[in-house]
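I hope you will forgive my troubling you with a question about protein structure. I set the record out below, with my sincere thanks for your time.
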Amino acid sequence: MLRSMYSGVSGMKGFQTKLDVIGNNIANVNTVGFKKGSVVFQDMLSQTVSSVGVNPAQVGLGSSAASIQQNHNPGSGMMTGVGTDLAIMGKGFFVVKDSNVSADGLPLPVTAPRKEYLTRTGNLVVDKIGYLKTPQGHHLLDTKGNEIQINPTAFDSFAIESNGTIKVKNKADGSEEILKYPNNDVVQIAIFAPPNPSGLRKSGGSLYEMTDAAGPGGILYTTPESNDTQIQSGMLEMSNVELTEEFTEMIIAQRGFQANSKIISTSDEILQELVNLKR
């Protein structure tokens, strides 16, 4: 009798977790670059009540959430026409880094190493000194691990190519060229595709932290071509949440929660009957 009650409690806890994940998915249906999650369940330990016969007689002791997996399938694209809005057409993430300056452009005190993150969010902005940043202030990195800066005093405008290079228009003579370093190396936006993106750790703000589960060696500053990926300018990748799927899963979770609560109430009624028998 008590086994059924504990099984019902474990089921309710599991479906509560599922509802939490579904609620988060629905809340982020319009979040740029968001990847939806799903809960995978597993059965808990089973108690052997009899070893007589060929097959053992076992009673399960409920279920638990085995993992919360992230679905990294690409979301739909939304055209914006803004040149600094970027969408990754394929696998991989942009590599960004904590800012070392305040909103006023003043250096911040060095208290800890600046962390690097991965993100699919490509709604970038250009600050007043020419750095490409996320709206939260993280710097976009290139294939050399450097922060990308476009000198606003030298260039009139710029456009980001599908291979991650940046074509700039000179203010002096109106000529166009690919942005390069002083040593003549081409500046190219980095794209990194970890072996196991589901192993990344979410850190808020549509950012991911690299973990050992996602792949060994940390973040690499690889090119879009090496990841069989292109960058689309003037477009944003939207959330991959499908509301029809989430509503269906929500109904299933709700019914599962109700059924498990019914197990507890039914077990309680039977226990009450046993107590009454003694009277």
User: Anything to note?
Assistant: The mean pLDDT is 91. The first strand starts at residue 37 and ends at 43. The chain has two domains: 2-72+241-278, 77-237. DSSP finds two helices and 19 strands in the chain.
